Amino acid sequence: MTIDAWELKSNFFKEKIKTSRLKAFQLMESETGDFDKDGVKVYSCEYDQAGNMVREAEYGPDGELDWICSYAYDAAGRLSEETIYTDGNVVEGRTVHGYNAESQLAEVSEFGDGSEAEYKTSYIYEGGRLAEEVRTDDAGEKSGCCKHKYDGAGKRLETVEYDVDGN
Length: 167
Description:
mainly beta
């Protein structure tokens, strides 16, 4: 089983930056952190036994907690949910990941502090390769699109990001 890590490249487009193999799942196996020059903790992460991040936190200059992001994984070991908390235990936002039968990322739903998705991104594959990403708003209206082109060897040649008008 694998888990993919993604990096936000723009307001819409994310790029896969890492694939990890999952062997087991157990919470809070290890913790790491960063400290400022005065020894005040500014960032921390917690990982399960398989090396998957299950919690990260950022702290302000006074050492007080600014936010926490928790990560959950499905039975297949894939990232299924990210939840951001601020002001203690107040949910600021949540992202839910859905997968297709081939275990490819199929949909990402982004929630604010409510129960309705504010944005959804659908991932469309052709020949096992990501061909298109379509973003819709809470009304189901298309708000953006990315299309990917590959060479014969399967290497990505081009990614074009379009706005709602196709520009």
